[in-house]
Amino acid sequence: MLKYKAIIFDLGGVIVNLDQDRTIRSFKRLNIDLDEVNEKLPIFKEYELGKVNTETFVQTIKAELKGNASDIEITHAWNNMILNVPTDRIEILKLLRKDYKIFILSNTNELHIQEFKKIFEKDHPDEIWESLFDKIYYSHQINLRKPHLEAWQFILDENNLKPEETIFIDDTRMHFKAAETMGIKSIWTKRPIGQWFVDEVKQLEKQ
For residue 53, is it within any domain? Predict the structure, then answer.
């Protein structure tokens, strides 16, 4: 009998390849510094929490531009960090789902998910993204984001899971530390899932 019942995955950097520098460079070409905007305005967190819609987000960014840019250019720059999901990671998810309930908990937003799904459907026409998981929790849809403990608690409650029977993997140390305080077995990684993660889960089962 397995010790753990479920695995909660972060999305970007763990399953999906990202390159945030691409977005930073794209906005610099539009004469905008994302770090300055982030320090000045709460728009990024508000967008991730679903407190503002995509139109408001784009127009807020547009108002900070020192030059001119279209809505399409801003959207493209924002989405430029989204890359792909290699096939081997899909196979890892399918393998793990044979023994565990698997979930996504991601701090994300509507534009990034729309772009990601386009890329995924193009790269993997025979796969259905949502069918790879028991359920997907995007911050802008559930109005909760990491590292707030309520985000994990929401998943635990909705799926009748116990913290001590749940594994969480994320590439952000702050999120890893927060989940640990709840008694969730947490893994902090700087590399995407692969066979190493399957081996790690097997080791956790033996402990």
Answer: yes
